[in-house]
Amino acid sequence: MVLGLLLARAGVEVTVLEKHADFLRDFRGDTVHPSTLTLLDELGLGERFGKLPQSRLDTVSVPGPPALTIADFRKLKVAHPMSRWFRSGTCWTSWPRRAGPSPRSTCG
How far apart, in whole angstroms, are the C-alpha atoms of residue 29 and residue 64? Predict the structure, then answer.
């Protein structure tokens, strides 16, 4: 999708194909990590992505006495010290509309 966006912005005619008719399958969820959140900002999509329904992950822990923290994104010295989780269908279904209009891009 990102490659398609970049090519369309450069004036290349793009068609994005998906094997399934939609992205609304329960098992599909994605995490977006700090470096990817920064990349979305650089592409001009960070603010739009931030408006999609999602969960913020600050830490990853294993429960139990005592709980074990595996990752703590809050300690990172980056623009987005967190990971975000969202349902793929929510994001990818709306991605073409949210990426910005382009007469050279279609989804099928």
Answer: 25
User: What backbone phi and psi angles, to 5 degrees, belong to 43?
Assistant: -85, -5
CA separation for the pair 99, 45 (Å, rounded): 7
> What does pTM read for this prediction?
0.71
Domain ranges of the chain: 27-94
pLDDT tens digits, one per residue of 84-105: 988 766 666 555 554 455 555 5
What letter does residue 74 receive in the DSSP assignment? G
Which candidate, 82, 92, 8, places its Cα nearest to that of 52?
92
Extract the runs of DSSP E, i.e. beta strands, from the chain.
14-16, 29-32, 55-57, 59-62, 68-72, 83-87, 105-107
Which amino acid belongs to residue 68? L
